[in-house]
Write a structure and sequence with these properties.
- There is one protein chain.
- With 227 residues, the chain is mainly α.
- 57% of the residues lie in helices and 6% in strands.
- The chain is built from eleven helices and three strands.
- Strands 2-1-3 form a three-stranded mixed beta sheet, with no helix packed on it.
- Strand 1 and strand 2 form a beta hairpin.
- Helix 6 crosses helix 8 and helix 8 crosses helix 10.
- The radius of gyration is 18 Å and the shape is globular.
Length: 227
């Protein structure tokens, strides 16, 4: 029976998908799903995970600097959307940064530090969604010729993706999407070394992925903020 579900090399499709991800994306995705499972099983609570300046530096709860980026809410369809965006655009950026994971790690370090500094200004304790939004924005600027289809209704080029998600989130939830805005702010003005890492290498066009081809992956709606 196992042979029926196993793919090439005897691996299950989910296993193959998991191990094909670059290392940083793989562990970030794993930590996100694992954290949601722990919360769902009442082993930990969201109150132990959110970022608070007073809790981190006053009570030495330094794990919050990490857990604020890996908790997107309990197991739900919203979490599935978050994981899809996280692994997809994180993977695309990490693969384009070269074989070394160090380049992508530096980018994550800059983005997470910037979001931690901005967090008290917007009262957002969980920063996983803004970080994911910043990766979407960065990717959209690096691949401006890629065409996307939004729910099969709207076709547009990649630079419009963050704004489409922002508008849809505003329409769906009726509130200003602070996570999307924070992602745009962090990703819009990267430092010079970031630009050299990700844009300094000449990129050879791939005939199989010309701009005329439409990326048929459906762009899902951004999940609501974690409360």
């Amino acid at each position: 029976m196992a042979d029926v579900f196993a793919g090439e090399g005897g691996h299950f499709p989910l296993e193959t998908w998991f191990y094909e991800m670059p290392i940083c994306t793989r562990w970030w995705t794993t930590a996100t799903v694992a954290t949601s499972i722990l919360v769902q099983c009442h082993i930990v609570t969201p109150f132990q995970l959110f970022y608070s300046f007073r809790a981190v530096f006053g009570k030495s709860q330094y794990w919050r600097l990490l857990t604020t980026f890996i908790y997107f809410g309990p197991l739900s369809l919203d979490l599935l959307f978050h994981v899809f965006f996280l692994q997809r655009y994180s993977r695309l950026l990490e693969e384009s940064s070269g074989r070394s994971a160090a380049h992508f790690t530096w980018m994550l370090l800059y983005a997470t530090t910037s979001l931690l500094l901005l967090s008290p200004l917007v009262s957002m304790p969980f920063l996983g969604s803004p970080l994911s939004s910043s990766l979407v924005y960065i990717w959209s600027r690096r691949d401006p010729d890629t065409r996307l289809s939004f729910l099969g209704l709207l076709v547009f080029t990649a630079p419009y993706l963050p704004w489409v998600l922002m508008g849809f989130s505003l329409l769906l939830h009726g509130t200003i999407p602070k996570d999307e805005i924070m992602g745009v702010v962090v990703g819009h003005n990267p430092p010079a070394w970031w630009i050299r890492l990700f844009e300094g290498r000449p990129r050879q066009p791939d005939p199989a992925t010309q701009a005329v081809a439409i990326d048929h992956d459906i762009v899902a709606a951004a999940a609501p903020e974690v409360r």
